[in-house]
Write a structure and sequence with these properties.
4 strands, two-stranded antiparallel sheet
Length: 267
Amino acid sequence: MVINTNTSALNAATQLDMNSANLSTSLAALSSGSKITSPSIDPAGLAVSMQMSAQVARTGAAQDNVNNAISFNQTQDGYLQQVNTALSRMSELAVQAQDVTKTTSDRALYQQEYSTLGAYVDNVKTQSFNGVSLFDGSTLNVTTDGQGGTFANVGVNLGSTTYSTATADNVSSISGAKKAVTDTVAAIQQLASDRASIGANEETLGFYNAQLSSLSNNLQAATSQITDVDVATESTNYAKQNILVQSSTAMLAQANAMPQSLLRLLS
């Protein structure tokens, strides 16, 4: 037995350091809720979780874009429902103005209402959504995923000749009223087609929205498997490491006391 180098104490001290480090790691995991409290714990897992977290963020941004595009289309359709009511009334007025029992004064009244409704339709084409024109006919490319994929959101052009011709008609004469009937019917048919396009846009964007929601949920679940601590398991590990630290401390004390037995040989 030697005095200068207490190998047993050194080994016990080394083991105590290891157990203390493991205890600290377990305590950090429990207090933070994360298994990876330091890059050295799981470098590969950290790298994968960072990439997944970034993809979750991009997916969330794409979902916001899709939801805003859906709101854009819903706003368009809300306006077009009113335009449909106006055009339907205009076509009705055009037919009424052809009544041979109506006087010129009567037709002037019909024209007054017809032109007012036409002005309303013309005004709707100037409306916008957050500064973006609703009815200039532009196709908007909506970002639908975190990799930059897009969906062509087909636009509606309320300034087209079909609409402007109908709103500019004059029903103060029978011949003008006949023309107005033809033009308003064409405008209503175009409106039906435009609303169908908006409906198709909304439907498709709804599919993208559901797809993004599912992707985001699954990415977050996968990230959780890598980074989130299992409290039950880690609590058991914490208790284990705590006992090992106490045992190592006790053994280090015993190892430090061993050289004192040499004093008996010198007495």
